[in-house]
Amino acid sequence: MTAVHRGPVSRLTRRIVMRANGFGLSLRRLMMAVAAVASLGALIDVAAVAPASAQSFTYNPLPPRPKPPKAANDNQMLVQATEVDYDYNNSRVSAVGNVQLFYNGTSVEADKVIYDQKTKRLHAEGNIRMTDADGKITYAEIMDLSDDYRDGFVDSLRVDTADQTRMAASRADRSSGNYTVFENGVYTACAPCKDDPKKPPLWQVKGARIIHDQQEKMLYFETAQIEFFGVPLAYMPYFSTPDPTVKRKSGFLMPGYVSGTTNTGYGVEVPYYWAIAPDMDATINPRFLSRQGVLLQGEFRQRLIDGAYQIRAYGIDQLDPGAFSGQPGDKQFRGAVDTKGQFALNDKWVWGWDGVLMSDYYFFSDYRLYQYRDPLGSFLLLPTEALSQLYLTGVGNRSFFDARTMYWLSYSGNQSQVPIVYPVIDYSNVLNYPVFGGEFSYKTNFVNMSRDQAVFDPITTIANTNSLCTTASADPLARTPSQCLLRGFPGTYTRLTAEAQWRKSFTDPLGQIWTPFASLRADAINSSVSNQPGVSNYLPVGDTQAFRLMPTVGLEYRYPFINIQPWGSTTVEPIAQIIIRPNETYAGKLPNEDAQSMVFDASNLFSVDKFSGYDRVEGGGRANVGVQSTTQFDKGGAVKALFGQSYQLFGMNSFAVQDPINTGLNSGLDKPRSDYVASASYSPNSTYTFSVRSRMDEQTWNVQRFEAEGRANFNRWAVSVLYGNYAAQPELGYLTRREGILTSGSIKLATNWVVSGSARWDLEANKINQYVLGAGYVDDCFVLAANYVTSYSYSAGTAPPVLSHAFMFQIGLRTLATSSTTSSSAGLQ
What we know:
Layout: E1 14-18, H1 23-42, E2 77-81, E3 83-87, E4 92-103, E5 106-116, E6 121-131, E7 137-146, E8 152-160, E9 166-175, E10 179-188, E11 203-213, E12 218-228, E13 231-242, E14 251-252, E15 256-258, E16 267-269, E17 272-277, E18 280-284, E19 287-289, E20 293-304, E21 307-317, E22 333-344, E23 349-358, H2 363-367, E24 372-373, E25 380-381, E26 385-395, E27 399-410, E28 420-430, E29 439-451, E30 455-458, E31 484-488, E32 491-503, E33 506-507, E34 513-529, E35 542-558, E36 561-565, E37 568-580, E38 621-633, E39 638-650, E40 676-683, E41 688-696, E42 703-713, E43 717-726, E44 738-748, E45 753-762, E46 767-778, E47 782-793, E48 802-813, E49 817-828
Parallel strand pairs: 15-49
Antiparallel strand pairs: 1-2, 2-4, 3-4, 4-5, 5-6, 6-7, 7-8, 8-9, 9-10, 10-11, 11-12, 12-13, 14-17, 15-16, 16-19, 17-18, 18-20, 19-20, 20-21, 21-22, 22-23, 23-26, 24-25, 26-27, 27-28, 28-29, 29-32, 30-31, 32-34, 33-34, 34-35, 35-37, 36-37, 37-38, 38-39, 39-40, 40-41, 41-42, 42-43, 43-44, ...
């Protein structure tokens, strides 16, 4: 620098670019000291707790300041002030009046900045505002630091971070270059009230002292209290948390309460988190139970370059095994291990696994360890089985491949009735180029599975046990559809299915749309059915090899009529479909594991094969006819309707053939002329939706299946009502008509308050057999939720359904902690 200006410069602003030589060195050291103040604000990135002003956290922002200009390079500093003065006698540099210092992305603004070269101290005062490169803003009134920023203090500190957390303190003292002590501090992650910035936030944490140990990267809080709307609600004499620079750090997590059961007792969990390395960690979570002792739980996680995996282990040396008298849990040691992982081979292929092992099949349910929660974690339901599998999946532009082996671990103890799927392989592909001018696709499915014990399902009031189902008979006709079903066969089953499909659409000069289609499906099947009691009444026992070929040709016809009016347009479209194919071979004589669901309605009226899986295939000539209408209103809204029927033209009707589970019987398709199916929906706008679906008897027009649904979604509330009425299907095990209403709704009481609930009313039994009630407050810094749930679920050791009750209370403070308490009970119904 070639000149130093002394004294005021009238209304001019002095801009000086300092370099690291001569007098510039002093101001550069000054700027290094200024940068040190950023370390005071840096610790406010904390994901946990912090200080508070002596009274309460208030927010009174200063007017916006201009953005700092970019420096010429990283080694230059820009000083802007009304007056810049250098006192040679006292070796002191002063910048006075609207001082702005810019250095390496950090800016400091103040009324006055003084750097004493003899004492090597930086002193700034008056409306101090420092903004670092990460967007964190620190406000203060007085700042005094050594130029190596090892010691110093800041008065009236307030920090706003980029992650919307805020901290204030009456004073911050720094010593030994490692410790910073905040006196009378307050911390919050809540935004200030827009209407009244001085109003206390929703929650804040006050502390008499907060100590930041930069070497340990820890924050220690003394005499802290949590306030809601300025009212103290919780007091903590001492606690600690990692500082904001720490993304992962070993330490204890928030404890949790466990309601337990009469067999296990009540308890508490105290989790410990262990950050082993940047790519791996573990959580050790002992559960202390009043009746059974300590249940140890541990989880190990590791993330690799191409994926991640985790392993969880559980174990307990039970103090009172007799509490589970007569059950598999009556043993000294019980435990389990479960693991999962997934890895990418490239951008299209992934492989992974899920695995579960248990000392006994009641362990998870007894200790409520395998809990399924809704997306908000509001309530739990116990599943009936755990899945172990190994899989490989690939996804292309128009192709899909999936191969996996599956083993279900039953919580009911009937493990011998659960199948093992050694592999099931699916592959499908749609060619990207036309074949004979149309679209060509193909798919394959391979499965190999086994089951040790037959699964019978008594479907009559007389057969309340399996005795009738397992009665052997030399006469296959001795078993009638009204007695039992064979849900799962004993033995092994292997099937390979391959199918190719082609279709092409033409539109003639009259606007008629013609779509010819063709397909060829082949099944190679090897079935080995064990000769257990009663099985021969359903399936041929012993080994069976079968080859099933199903060629199909068909034509679909559509003729849309369009009427345009000033208020909108209506399209009426008659549809007819003719399908020609041979009879289904081996119909009802082979195991059926994946095509057990059969619902005939408007959604699958024009499906070429209406069976849901591969084990059955529809055969015989068939015609599907119907008409659909769509009305679009210019001002928004639409009406859609469809009505139709299906006809068996020739050959054998696959849906009238009795198989081990009577799949097609009572479906509405098990006669030459099917039941009528219809659907209609009306959406006047984006707020309301109404729809009905129905199946009516072909001769009497009696309703066999009817559903009506209405939905409304407003800004503040939403509601839905679903009514269902289903006729008896005795061949499928439904002996009486089923009728009920399912309702759900939510209402936004205030900006952040939501109440929701749902209920299912069984009209036949005239009782509500399931309901969920919940209320919660959610905003950007606070979560408060309470839910009460009742539902039927499986409970180990009981045959009939169990009505379970669960209550959960959850509270969460952003950046601090989330705590929840769950209480549940169950009783036979």
